[in-house]
Hints:
By secondary structure, the protein is an alpha/beta fold.
Amino acid sequence: MSMRYRVLGGTGIEVSVQCLGTMMFGAIGNPDHDDCARIIHAALDQGINFIDTADMYSAGESEEIVGKALKGRRDEVVLATKVHFPMGGGPNRGGNSRRWIVREVEESLRRLGTDWIDLYQVHRPDHRTDVEETLSVLTDLVREGKIRAFGCSTFPAEEIVEAQVVAERRGLGRFRTEQPPYSLLARGVERSVLPVARRYGMGVLVWGPLASGFLTGRNRKGRPIDMTSGRAALTPGRFDPSLPLTATKLDAVEALVEVADGLGCTLPELALAFPAAHPAVTSVIIGPRTMEQLEASLKGASLVLDDASLDRVDEIVPPGFDLYHPDGAWVSPHLSPAARRRPELDRPAAG
């Protein structure tokens, strides 16, 4: 297999079309540091040069594992991590403020055992902090040489646009990348996020291509779902077979299995090839917990989907449509009752 590479936005940095995600390294996935290091080394040996992690993955343990594994091989890797979610109790230990980012980037550098981060991403929006404040501190970190570029993750399209406009007006560095959820079952980003990213020349690295495990082939209609391990144990509400939403996803999986069978590939191979076929997508994040899962993901790297296959996929899950809400970690404050309901006295059209 010969791994393909694409330029990450306008940075000039070439990254592999598959990116090694490390959320499952550490306490919530694979706690064996040596085994995780072997997986990282195997990915590098197969041509992957892009690794994505985050400070909050297993409370920093994932970054520590990556740092140890990259000793002696740091220059081979485009290293990405993220900041935003709380790290410990108390106020001011999360978010997108200058105060927190200045402090937490140092912690990430320490855990990763490196002097610089190639791509530093804001993990989610923070409506308590002006985006100008966030862009300002990230621009300073680039000038200081602690990060090479910065991006956002799971931002709505309108907030990506706002950040680009503010950067231009204030003479600040801009988000070079976006990291959205994108899969055969969650295509909502096709409506606006991916077109906006293309418009601004942003690189896109997508997460969740296996739809939290629904596209691994293990969860099938009419079969019991193991709720004691993996993603089902972490987010049981997404896997409850008694819920209509789960039934809808399982019906789609059965139809997608037929597409994969027609191509002579597995369902995971189809799932990983699908987002890579979109012209806005730079790299697809794979998140193996075991060596076996890594090897299975690598098999799909060379799969090419023809137009007929993509047309069939469109019939099963329409373009721009989500069969479920893919991001359970953040809810827009604009959807809270207080934000979408006028005071009762102001609701009538006439007084």
